[in-house]
Specification:
Largest sheet: 6 strands, mixed
Helix content: 55-70%
Structural class: alpha/beta
Radius of gyration: 22 Å
Low-confidence stretches: 1-5, 7-18, 158-168
Distance between the termini: 38 Å
Strand content: 5-15%
Strand order of the largest sheet: 1-3-2-4-5-6
Number of helices: 13
Length: 309
């Protein structure tokens, strides 16, 4: 198909011991060779195809359906971001890692906004590539495990005993506590409000319809009734916002310490706009006076996805 080199037909070797498949798209043949060697010599997976241009890139991605695409930004025919957006629009569910010499911050931000999970600068550093791929592969395994569990629960749903059904809220609470522990916000003043917000949206996940301001009011009213006094929705929102801002700061600090930490690579893109994580990192090390910005909606919906909502 099209302009593909070093192709392996999808399905060939499907029972291979290597669990992950990769596609490399880069106009530099030496980079393609290097990435393939890094992946296969370190037993990270198998490169099923490599391309030298962006032309027909989306079609090739959909045809081979690799777990991970390593793609350059500046490509002949169609740039890497355009290829990625086209593939995602057409239903591709895998991950993108961008490997490029581009250093322009708006261009890097555009790539993260489009959906990459990590950006690696050129010249290629072998250790960096290995660590990033291992982190992404770990997240893929977690997603697969969650999918298998959810499918099993759906299959067994009709025969679930009432005691098991009643245990589901406790299960959601346990998962939520684990996420908040990872983020370092357990015990924060707004953690209780944030928990209520997440669980409320988790309950309405099936309908997909909710209004944040209305839920803030519900939380404020419930708190006023339980604890006495007057609590307004704006206060609830501010506490939630401060707690999420703290989570962002904690993730940014973790990224500075270990940019390949699996919690950082997962939560940094799931709960935040990654360019804002980078901005917070700059703020923490004194390179900027402006902090990273948070989105309550993105954060909450990311956490809900972790609960299996």
């Amino acid at each position: 198909m099209f302009q593909s080199q070093n192709e392996t037909h999808p399905g060939a070797g499907a029972q291979s011991q290597q669990p992950h498949t990769f596609m490399v798209i880069d106009d530099d043949p030496s980079v393609r060779v290097m990435l393939k060697q890094i992946i296969e010599k370190n037993k990270l997976g198998k490169v099923v195809a490599d391309l030298s241009a962006g032309t027909h890139g989306a079609e090739e991605i959909l045809f081979y359906n690799p777990d991970v695409v390593l793609i350059d930004y500046l490509l002949p025919g169609m740039d890497g971001v355009a290829v990625m957006e086209a593939a995602l629009r057409q239903g591709y569910k895998g991950k993108f890692i961008m490997i490029s010499q581009v250093e322009d911050e708006p261009m890097v931000s555009k790539a993260y906004t489009a959906g990459i999970v990590f950006f690696i600068g050129k010249p290629v550093n072998r250790i960096e590539v290995i660590n990033v791929i291992r982190g992404v592969a770990h997240n893929l395994e977690l997603e697969r495990s969650m999918s298998l569990i959810q499918n099993a629960l759906q299959f067994m749903g009709g025969a679930q005993p009432k005691t098991q059904m009643s245990a589901q809220p406790q299960d959601a609470n346990a998962k939520l506590s684990a996420v908040f522990s990872d983020l370092g916000i357990v015990g924060d003043s707004g953690c209780k409000d944030l928990s209520r917000l997440v669980l409320r949206i988790h309950q309405t996940a099936a309908s997909g319809s909710y209004q944040l301001q209305e839920i803030y009011k519900e939380i404020a009213e419930a708190e006023a009734e339980q604890e006495g006094g007057s609590v307004n929705a704006r206060t609830v929102e501010q506490r939630i916002r401060r707690t999420i801002q703290k989570a962002l700061a904690n993730m940014a600090a973790l990224g500075q310490e270990d940019p390949y930490n699996t919690k950082f690579t997962e939560y940094g893109t799931l709960l935040f706009d990654f360019p804002q994580v980078r901005q917070e990192m700059k703020y923490l090390d004194g390179r900027s006076k402006e902090r990273g910005k948070i989105s309550i909606k993105k954060f909450v919906e990311g956490v809900v996805s972790k609960l299996g909502g």
